[in-house]
Amino acid sequence: MKTKHYLKKFMLSISLFVLIATPMFHFESAEHPVSASTTHQVEDGVTQPVYSYTDAIKETIYVESSLDSDRDGEDDMIAVDIMRPKETEEGLKVPAIMDASPYYESMGRGNESQIKDPDGIGKNTMFPLYYDNYFVPRGYAVVLVDMGGTNNSNGCPTTGGYEETESVKVAIDWLNGKGKAYDQDGNEITADWSTGKVGMIGKSYDGTLANAAAAQGIEGLETIVPIGGISSWYDYYRYGGIPFYNNGPGGLAGRVTSSERVAQCAPVREEMRIASDDTTGDYNEFWDERNYVKDADKVTASVFVIHGINDYNVKANHFSNWWEALAENDVPRKLWITQTGHVDPFDFRRAEWVDTLHRWFDYWLLDIDNGIMDEPMAEIERGVDDWDTEETWPAADAEQVDIKLAPAVEELPGTLTTAPVIEEHTQSFIDNPRQTEGEMVENEFTAKENRLMFLTPELTEDVRISGVPKMNLQAIVDKADTHLSVRIVDYGTDERINHRSREEGIVTLHDQVTCWGESSAEDSACYKEAELVTHEAPYEVVTHGWLDGQNYESLDYSNPLDPGASYSFTWETLPEDYVFKEGHRIGVIVTGSDRNYIMTDSNQATIDVALGESYLELPVVGGKEVFNRAIGSDGGTSPNNTAELHAVLDYFINKGAITNEKDARALKNHITAIQKFEETNQLEKAAKHLASFKQLLNYQKDNDIIDSEAYEVLYVDTEYLIQLIEAL
């Protein structure tokens, strides 16, 4: 063992603890003492604070691993700080709430950036965050693991590699009676006080470690609560084959490595730089090792996911991809979607959050049936103090609606419709790697050479989307490569949570403090309050998505484009749950490079987009009918005469929408006859035969001869023509 190193940095002081009280605080007061117990006490479905925080046992242990991530010839030892009720020395068995983190030496945890040794004197006097203050009195152990290679653990960080997950696993194993650990004097120590049940929690990297551990199916890990956690490191540093910036994994590893081993770990960081392959941006074995979504079938823990839908650090696809995989494997789960960026709910919904977390851990770690799993699965924030509940996510009645990119109409540079675009139309733009997001989005009624803009009319009712939109672009590129971007924008002045503010949607109130649990002279349970920040803005960029054109077939490899050839480019945007309000417009903006988020492409390619063949799959709650009603459309092409209806029929026949030639010919013959009545001004007969044409469409639909889209469009177009004729 490397005992000297441990003695230097891990002598924990045992201090007298005092309670701090101010008029605003929520806390367990010394004026109302409770008697100690060797069993958990429960009232109203939750554990009560019957154990003394003052007398709690604080210890530092070092768990053996089989790793040698720093390649010094000795197994890495993983440092763990533990706080548990003193009654655990008298037979009380408690579960553990674990926050494994790389940030306990620097950067810190929580809105106030707390670290374990704030005085820098080599003694861990602080248990960052409120988990110890609140949960230890309620009969939990709080376990803070220094991720391998950070703070007082040996080794080198590998930015999502198996070594980091293993450093968590050995700690959980030790709590379950497996493996060996030692105190700071080198004495072997066991967790005879542990029930073996562990719940992991943490924001950002900490939540990522929880996801990674769950994806390994570690015995004893009963539940995880990832807040803004990564589910695939490829998605953290790449999108659609495009790096967000260079040397991401190595750079992050350098920031979190223990200050004593930064130079020693340099070779590991260099290996990561090479293996991550910034040159192509492709998905490879390096990234596959760091993809937890693919291992969702191993998850045995329940999962409570919290994520900011506007988090552009750990982007929202991390929760949606993970959530979908968990659903496919029937993992017990719960979800909070917030309108903030990379923010902990403790900093904007504090009371509700602590109450929910308390009940969650009581249920999963102490088997207290408090009804939390009978509540709606998802809670979604719409605005300040405005939360909706859903039985699942995405919303059960959300349907992917194909929204076609259509040519300009009146003042609109381009339009959005569910109806087919019958004639061939092309719009072109030139990729400008210097274009800002403001230049892409603003002046929506103005045509610009570096973007394509498509808008709905003003909505006549609210439209909610819930899920993951997908862009399908049929285009010709005049270079061997280009980047492609899409934005979905809400145009309409409104008061919104300002998730792009300095604190990503909140503001810290330095003169307001609340307390959660008990405090000591060195470790306060009291934290600065924060509140949501709003602003009035003329538009909101709802979601984004990007693609490297050379990855049009797969993220696993790049294919140079053949200039002049037509390609089908398909990519997902970030997930969303958003309400476009009545009177607003939905906008879709197609561009190339995006300097605000991704590395740009220097080719400055010209992209010719085939309208009609290009469309956005939008997950509309209520489906196509709701979207069409909101934009004032019947879903058809609004033909002015039978010849135009004939063109619509030909469009669908060419698409293969009618199963055989005989049935297609029957429809064509019927329309041809109607055209003759129309040309000879026999409008009454034309209307009568249009009615019988509707009957023929119904027959073909009922017998699965015609597909649903062709039927719907032809039917409403026929009805539209009948109304035109009857109005004459």
What are the salient characteristics of this protein?
7-stranded antiparallel beta sheet, 728 residues, 16 helices, 11-stranded mixed beta sheet, alpha+beta, disordered N terminus, single chain
Task: Provide a descriptive summary of the structure in words.
- The structure is a single chain.
- It contains 16 helices and 30 strands.
- The strands form 7 sheets. Strands 7-3-4-6-5-8-9-12-13-14-15 form an 11-stranded mixed beta sheet, with helices on both faces.
- The termini are far apart.
- Contiguous runs where pLDDT drops below 50 for at least 5 residues: 1-36
Number of separate helices: 16
Radius of gyration: 30 Å
Care to count the β-strands? 30
Mean pLDDT: 93
Overall morphology:
elongated
How much helix is in the residues?
10-25%
Major beta sheet summary: 11 strands, mixed
Oligomer: single chain
End-to-end gap: 96 Å
> Widest sheet: strand order?
7-3-4-6-5-8-9-12-13-14-15
Q: How much of the polypeptide forms β-strand, as a percent range?
A: 25-35%
Backbone structural class: alpha+beta
TL;DR?
The chain is built from 16 helices and 30 strands. The protein has 728 residues and is an alpha+beta fold.
Map the helices and strands.
Layout: H1 3-9, E1 42-43, E2 46-47, E3 57-64, E4 77-84, E5 94-101, H2 131-135, E6 141-146, H3 162-175, E7 181-182, E8 194-203, H4 205-214, E9 221-227, H5 233-237, E10 238-239, E11 242-243, H6 248-256, H7 266-276, H8 285-289, E12 302-308, H9 317-328, E13 333-338, H10 350-366, E14 378-383, E15 386-390, E16 398-406, E17 415-417, E18 425-430, H11 437-441, E19 452-455, E20 463-467, E21 470-477, E22 483-497, E23 506-515, E24 526-532, E25 534-548, E26 566-572, E27 576-580, E28 585-591, E29 606-611, E30 615-621, H12 623-630, H13 642-654, H14 661-679, H15 683-702, H16 708-727
Parallel strand pairs: 5-6, 5-8, 8-9, 9-12, 12-13, 13-14
Antiparallel strand pairs: 1-2, 3-4, 3-7, 4-6, 10-11, 14-15, 16-17, 16-30, 18-29, 19-28, 20-27, 21-26, 21-29, 21-30, 22-25, 22-28, 23-24
Helix pairs in contact: 6-7, 13-14, 13-16, 14-15, 15-16
